[in-house]
Write a structure and sequence with these properties.
168 residues, alpha+beta, Tetrahydropterin Synthase, Chain A, 2 domains, 3-stranded antiparallel sheet, 38% helix
Length: 168
């Protein structure tokens, strides 16, 4: 009778260790012996304990990245303070984990530098008039770069453009 109880306990422990529940809107990556094996979808999934390991679980829902106010110089040498927000989501969980080390920091850096580059090509007047065009150009250029990272920029909004007091 005792060996049956021991076997039952081992089977229960094995099944509890192999069951992984992934919440709706999330995905997870599984590595088998240190190498990518498969992607877990939302719901109840089973892995092989001690051989398989869940290395990442993240959301595939749209996320928001706030771009802190940046000092940018326009084509006519006027300093502007620009604030923006980026809406993005992970399209390919495998690429987002294996192609870039810190996705949020990478998105922040590439958005900041691209925003500065676009503003530097415009004068103060062009910057104030063509905000929608700049948003679209920024979106297109970011999606070109971030496609290799497995994510997609949904929308970019330049929230505020603040010129210095002397210009106002």
């Amino acid at each position: 009778m005792e060996p049956i109880i021991a076997i039952a306990l081992v089977l229960i422990g094995y099944s509890l260790g192999s069951a992984k529940i992934i919440n709706q809107g999330n995905e997870a990556l599984v590595e088998r012996l240190g190498q990518y094996h498969r992607k877990l979808r939302p719901g109840l999934n089973f892995i092989v304990p001690l051989i398989d390991q869940v290395v990442m679980e993240d959301t595939t829902r749209e996320q928001i990245l706030d771009i802190k106010p940046q000092n940018v110089i326009t084509k006519d040498n006027i300093y502007l303070e620009i604030d923006g927000v980026v809406y993005w989501r992970i399209k390919d969980m495998e690429k987002s984990f294996y192609q870039i080390d810190d996705l949020a920091q990478g998105l922040n850096q590439i958005t900041t530098t691209t925003l500065r580059e676009i503003i530097a090509q415009n004068s103060l007047e062009e910057t104030n008039v063509s905000r929608v065009d700049m948003d679209k150009e920024l979106l297109d250029r970011l999606n070109e770069t971030t496609a290799d990272w497995g994510d997609e920029i949904q929308r970019v909004d330049i929230q505020s453009i603040t010129p210095p007091e002397s210009v106002r």
